[in-house]
Amino acid sequence: MSRLFLMLIVLAIGSPALARPLVAILAEPRGTETTDLIAPYAVLAESGAIDVRIVAAGMTPIRLMPGQAFVRPQATYADLRPNVIVVPFMMPAADPAREAWLKAQAARGARIVSICAGAETLAHAGLLDGLDATTHWYELGRLAKAYPKVRWRRDRRWIVDGNVTTTAGVTASIPASLALLRDLAGEDTMRATAARLGVPPPVQAHDGAAFRVNGDAVLAGLSGWANAWRSQTVAVRIADGFDDLAFATTLDAWSRTNRSEAFASASAVSRHGLAVIAPEKPPHAERTVEARAGDPALVLEDIASAYGKPTARYVALTLEHPYWLTK
């Protein structure tokens, strides 16, 4: 009887049903959007329920954009057979080798998730044909003309159609990643993870039509451009064990003001094993900020305190964050 009991334990431990899902987040050394890349990594890694890796064609460091910093990949395409693949906005959006790998993974049943303008990578590969999808508000018109087989929508921060998920602009990466975590690990794990990260639970409804280039947007943008002569270099302070989500939202937002560019203050490894590489020759920091909050709304409040609310709202517009809707 004891031998049978031990055998059942061994079988249970080795059961694929008990294996943690493996999520691969694609990255491109020539340029990958900062929050698109790091937010899904931070959310899923923080849960403790998901194995997550940043994956590229090779091991060349990934240039983050905007801002000045690099991230070290953790695996190559050939190393993994992931359950889920996350596709951030990358430059260039189209790459034959990447598309071939993506289509092969989709064909074997992997779930595909694009973040923001990463939807163009999926559309170019034909993976969105016949599906409902969304992307960054600024790219919707262009992509609708380029890929008419896709049913493009503006009313959701993320859209799930079959085995494919797409998200709206940059900061939709956080709620969409939480929604993905809920699918993979359950409601309780998702809510506990959101609470530890200091971000609200995910809400899918979204007024995408409110994000557009209008007089208000032009004035908000000009508030930064008018002060470009006083532009600053902003160091985002990090050290080993830093909060990767807070670093991403801080570096990203402070690099979008039209009057500042942010950079990593040092090379360091996050609490979830993300290796960030500082610029080889960092500029002199005219302002230093702490990566203190993963919630973009709090970072935007910091920018409003520094440069005024119009500038913070302009940044929110580029990030497609609801802060844009505040007056």
Your description of this structure?
- With 327 residues, this protein is an alpha/beta fold.
- It has helices spanning 2-13, 34-47, 96-107, 119-124, 140-146, 173-185, 187-197, 215-225, 244-254, 296-307, 309-319, and strands spanning 22-26, 32-33, 51-56, 62-65, 70-71, 75-76, 84-87, 111-114, 132-133, 151-152, 158-161, 164-167, 232-237, 260-264, 268-269, 275-277, 287-290.
- The strands form 4 sheets. It has a 7-stranded mixed beta sheet with strand order 6-3-1-7-8-12-11, sandwiched between helices. Strands 2-4-5-16-15 form a 5-stranded mixed beta sheet.
- α9 (244-254) links the parallel β13 and β14 (260-264).
- It is globular and about 50 Å long.
- The N and C termini lie far apart (71 Å).
- 48% of the residues are buried.
- The model is unreliable at 4-17 (pLDDT under 50).
* Gross morphology: globular
> Mean pLDDT, as a whole number?
91
Based on CA atoms alone, the radius of gyration comes out at 20 Å
Order of helices and strands: HEEHEEEEEHEHEHEEEHHHEHEEEEHH
Characteristic terms for this protein:
globular; alpha/beta; 7-stranded mixed β-sheet; 327 residues; 19% strand
Brief summary:
This protein is an alpha/beta fold and 327 residues long. It is built from 11 helices and 17 strands.
Helix and strand arrangement:
Elements: H1 2-13, E1 22-26, E2 32-33, H2 34-47, E3 51-56, E4 62-65, E5 70-71, E6 75-76, E7 84-87, H3 96-107, E8 111-114, H4 119-124, E9 132-133, H5 140-146, E10 151-152, E11 158-161, E12 164-167, H6 173-185, H7 187-197, H8 215-225, E13 232-237, H9 244-254, E14 260-264, E15 268-269, E16 275-277, E17 287-290, H10 296-307, H11 309-319
Parallel strand pairs: 1-3, 1-7, 2-4, 3-6, 7-8, 8-12, 9-10, 13-14, 13-17
Antiparallel strand pairs: 4-5, 5-16, 11-12, 15-16
